[in-house]
Design goal:
Elements (H helix, E strand, L loop, with lengths): L7 E4 L5 H12 L3 E6 L2 H4 L8 E5 L5 H11 L4 E4 L14 H29 L2 E6 L13 H21 L4 E8 L5 H9 L3 H10 L9 H13 L7 E4 L6
Parallel strand pairs: 1-2, 1-4, 2-3, 4-5, 5-6, 6-7
Helix pairs in contact: 1-8, 3-4, 4-5, 6-7
Bound molecules: nicotinamide-adenine-dinucleotide (NAD).
EC number: 1.1.1.-
Pfam families: adh_short_C2
Protein name: 2-keto-3-deoxy-L-fuconate dehydrogenase
Length: 243
């Protein structure tokens, strides 16, 4: 089992879903966790959890990222989890949709990496985990144009950071989940107008016949935080969707 005792892990989008489960899993593995989210209310559900400090952070806000990292002290593990799904094809995607997907799903990650990397390089040790998706360069998925192009960029970012710093103790990997049970998934299912059918359709594309759980993805994030011989990889954890 992975022992993260003495490590500090910063998680974005830790208020709910995969980010929240990961904050708890990092803490259970012994890390001191700085759990961040734009939503102070959901973040509040982590207050009092052993090993977890909460801090409101909008990853679109460069100034807020800078102050958060300055006040955090050394960050050994960065989990860039924040991301957003825009539903639609290329014809449904406005310039604003494109810009927002890039800003939230990719540029925010570059800012956080830039903020923590100098400290990691000083210590010669760091694990960066970026949230991508099977819907990326891994697989073409209908009605996920802005999402998939931004999540594919996350894989490019991951490989680039891994290549530049592999000899200096930095590892950077991407997680590519299939469909995972989360609050935003529930909203997206409801938004289709036929919740039961949408849910059945999502389950049907997972060969294992079920959705993933946030805890399953969180376990994998903990593994990657401690996996000392892998970098630059995009790992599918998807119930067999990509096979
Ligand atoms: P979610 O979508 O239910 O929650 C997203 C969280 O992000 C919320 O807590 C929200 O407050 C936070 N957030 C939104 N904008 C933010 C901002 N500007 N700054 C900081 N936080 C912000 O959670 P989820 O479904 O577990 O998704 C988490 C990540 O996993 C996302 O990057 C998503 O694309 C990715 N992912 C999810 C699935 C899935 O099926 N759930 C599949 C593949 C990838």
């Amino acid at each position: 089992t992975t022992n993260l005792l003495g490590k500090t892990a910063l998680v974005t989008a830790a208020g709910q879903g995969i980010g929240r489960a990961s904050a708890l899993a990092f803490a259970a593995a012994g890390a001191h966790v700085i759990a961040t989210d734009i939503n102070g209310e959901t973040l509040g559900t982590l207050v009092g959890e052993a090993g977890v400090t909460t801090r409101q952070l909008d990853v679109l806000d460069a100034h807020s990222i800078a102050t958060t990292i300055a006040e955090a002290g050394p960050v050994d593990i960065l989990f860039n989890c924040a991301g957003y799904v825009h539903a639609g094809s290329i014809l449904d995607m406005s310039e604003e949709d494109f810009d927002f997907a890039i800003a939230l799903n990719v540029r925010s990650m570059t800012r956080l990496i830039k903020a923590v990397l100098p400290g990691m390089l000083e210590r010669g040790d760091g694990a960066i985990i970026n949230m991508s998706s099977v819907a990326s360069s891994m697989k073409g998925v209908p009605n996920r144009c802005a999402y998939s192009l931004s999540k594919a960029a996350v894989i490019g970012l991951t490989k680039s950071v891994a290549a530049d710093y592999v000899a200096q103790g930095i590892r950077c990997n991407a997680i590519c989940p299939g469909t995972v049970q989360s609050p935003s998934l529930e909203q997206r299912l409801a938004a289709t107008g036929d919740y039961e059918k949408a849910r059945a359709d999502f389950i049907a594309r997972q060969p294992m016949g079920r959705l993933g759980t946030p805890e399953e993805i969180a376990d994998f994030a903990v593994y990657l935080a401690g996996a000392t011989y892998t970098t630059g990889q995009a790992f599918a954890i998807d119930g067999g969707w990509a096979l």
